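Sorry, explain these tokens?

___
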Amino acid sequence: MPRTDNPLIVQSDKTILLEVDNERYTDARDILARFAELEKSPEYIHTYRVTPLSLWNAASSGLQSGDVLTALEEFAKYPLPANVVRDIADYMGRYGRVKLIREDGDLLLVSDDPVFIAEIAQHKKVQPYLLAQPGPSQLSINPAYRGHLKQALVQIGYPAEDLAGYVIGDDLPIELCATTAEGRPFWLRDYQCQAAEVFYAGGSARGGSGTIVLPCGAGKTMVGMAAMQQLQTSTLILSPNTVAVRQWIDELLDKTSLTEDLIGEYSGLQKDIRPVTISTYQMITYRKRGSEKGSAEEYPHFELFNARNWGLIIYDEVHLLPAPVFRITAELQARRRLGLTATLVREDGMESDVFSLIGPKKYDVPWKDLEKQGWIATAVCHEVRIPLDEGWRMEYALAAQRNKYSVAAHNPKKIDVLQVLLERHAADNLLVIGMYLDQLEEIAALLDAPLITGKTPVRERERLYEAFRTGQVRCLVVSKVANFSIDLPDANVAIEISGTFGSRQEEAQRLGRILRPKSDGSIAHFYTLVTRDTVDQTYAANRQRFLTEQGYKYEILYENEVFATA
């Protein structure tokens, strides 16, 4: 019998419709986030899709197919389609059907099903990495291609559980301090401890590789430090930018027993390789001009991966991992690998490479759960829709398709709305964020506010961030360089004037700039200024999709409503 008071409709194409105006909406949304991907989030009906990768990530974190089916049955209006029931059981059953193990020094791919091993051995994507078939239920693998094999197995739909273990890196004694360098008490939060424990898995081969998903402001760095303490080994940390490198160094010196002589910065400014070395993705992927593609000289800084006997590699903001780093990571499967991110969304569609090469999702916590516990700030999101005047409407209408977003994003009326919002939040600590430098330069000049872009020297960026933290500066105008790994605890208002097209990961990161808990318990406000009836509005809808999945709703305002409340 139909249960019309339930919020879900599960369809045979593996899409799931979630009714927003339903008293069970929140519970259903939180459960769906564990094993389905949000595709659309208009006002009344949200569309999710169950995919092989979403189910494999769920399986790797310990969820069983029975758990997924029970959850769907609990919230569904109608009986589950038979094909969906079978496919969920089938896909989740595929995870770990083959396993990578070591036996007498050999790397083996094994299964309980000899016929399945025979089938795998015949697959063209797998064959280049096979050495022999020593037994009916096992295949001998070239250790140099451990990562490449895992990629191939994901591509053919049978992800391997990697139990082959890891090399032991150089010893590095490291302890977390009970007090910071300034004498403040320090301890790990429960979820940070749990995330690190799940990754470590008691030091067994079942741990040691995987991705931890936590909101911006929830202390992912602390999880990384906890993993370092558990492993007591030399560690290479890769981060998005030099400012993030310095923040890692500051945190390690502030909260661990490590001293300055044990921590090295490997950047464009200095290249110290020490027991803990921190570099950037940009540095690692520097490409030597004129070098032959695929040669050892093409990416000279790849040598950093072999500069020491690393026992752990931490990929901070792993969703930003550049494609060339995947290439070298495929060859580093014998080293423990920890990915840290607020979102597994990648705009290049390479989520499966994160899964196979860094490791599957091991732990995540819904953003709203941490908000309720007070670990991240309560945030209210607003979308302000602004019309084009007649002259700009014509310019937009005549613009080439590739230029339409630029025209819409530069809508002059956005500046008027921005000024009203700045007056409303005059007592707050504000970030104005955009992607077009000419627009940001105009705004910075108009507001007499500091501007931070990719051209701003690292030392000047650090000086301005510190001035913002201490209250000397109350408003910063920033480009996308401030999207990632910037610690601005007192920022409580962000106004997005333009974004990177429909990037969901960027929207999550930008909201994250204001999610640090506020000392006064105040609410954070995130505004995105959107030009009505243009691609700007279309892109905004896509950017908001990830935040909707996390439980945030955008209040839709129109220009006249903003002015009316000024």
In short: Residues 190-365 form a domain with the Rossmann fold fold (CATH 3.40.50.300).
